[in-house]
Amino acid sequence: MNRPHYDVLIIGGGIIGASIAYHTAEKGFKVALLESRGLASGTSSKCDGNVLLIDKEPGFDSRMAIKSQALIHALPDALDMPFEYRQPGSIFLCENEAELEQAYSWVDQHNGVNDKAVFFRKLDREDLKNDSKHFSDHLVGGIECTNDATLNPYMLTYAFAHQSKKKDCDIYEYTPVTSVEKDGDAFTVRSHEKTFTAKRVINAAGIYAPHVGRMLGIDIPITPRKGHILVSSRAELMGTRKIQEFGYLMTKFGKERVADKEMNDYGIALVHEATDSQNFLLGSSREFIGYDHTVDHNIIKLIAKRAIHFFPSMKDMSMIRSYSGLRPWTPDHLPIVSETDVDGFYVAAGHEGDGIGLCAVTGHWMAEMLDGTLEEDLSPLDINRFKGGIHT
């Protein structure tokens, strides 16, 4: 039987897998991408389009975001298909003086370690009033980052795939991986009756990366973390930039903030994103409840209530739909981008809510890892960092 053989086989057709396909095909590798359903049908189509630095911890995390932002900024010229890229910047809103003090410290930390071209600025109450008439009067200030951008993740995934196919890349949709085996120097990957062989395999399966890892006896500490989003009808925008509450940082890293118990229990924090269609997305929530995609209408109500808390005039606006998605969470909130104990088998997953913003740098680094040109120290992203006792 004639089995297709590839230099690189990628498992997972979300934005991470598509970015890796694009970057590896650009390097001249013969590439295959296998997706169990349609491209971008999982997490990548059930999220917002954040390309953020403002919520990254200063140090390696922020440097990674800056690198990816620069790569994404260049993509409109490199890709044939548009993906609604804009760079409006972002704002964190603070409700009280304690939050404001922490937020200002966050600015100082970033400006102390990042390139001076990265612009973080402290905002006072008057700055907020000048920025949007819709902000609640109780807000005391905030911070902004002008580097932050937004894009359509569904469209970018397809743009990556389109460009990849113009090189030496085959894309197989509706091809779920049923087994992965290592035989000598090559891998055999099966999808029911289809069989592929490859020199190297990259597991970019997101929340399903642990399932693929187990096929080769590899433990991958990724857990699905559920989040909800609301979509408004077309209306006057609350603001053109990314707008979040500073408490979003608390919910992201599992810390308590001043909010109702129910808000904290579900990790609900304001996230507002304007779109090219002149409507906006509202989030967010964070839960560990397995692989359940069901929309919880109580959580939807709480997200709406939280949004009105920051934008009182939003109480008169219409929402046209809601959806939920599962983000691939790791215990230290950093993705896994590394080779494994099985020679030639790699993992590129676990980005949680940062997969959109970090897609470009992940694909770029994976391609460099494969052709031996990687100079960046990626030890913070190595899968073996979890062998010291960090568990889900």
Roughly how many Å apart are the termini? 42 Å
Give the H and E element order: EHEEHEHEHEEHEEEEHEEHHEEHEEEH
As a percent range, the share of strand residues is: 15-25%
Unreliable segments (pLDDT under 50, ≥5 consecutive)?
none
| Shape annotation | globular
By DSSP (H or I, 4+ residues per run), the number of helices equals 10
Gyration radius, in Å: 21 Å
Largest sheet: 8 strands, mixed
Mean pLDDT: 93
Helical residue percent band: 25-40%
Instruction: Count every beta strand, where a strand is a DSSP E run of 2 or more residues.
Output: 18
Instruction: State the secondary-structure class.
Output: alpha/beta
How would you sum up this structure, described in words?
The structure is a single chain. The protein has 392 residues and is of the alpha/beta class. The chain is built from ten helices and 18 strands. Strands 1, 2, 8, 9, 10, 11, 17 and 18 form an eight-stranded mixed sheet that branches. An eight-stranded mixed sheet has the order 5-6-4-13-14-15-12-16, with helices on both faces. Strand 17 and strand 18 (345-349) form a beta hairpin. The protein is globular. It starts with a strand and ends in a 21-residue tail after the last helix.
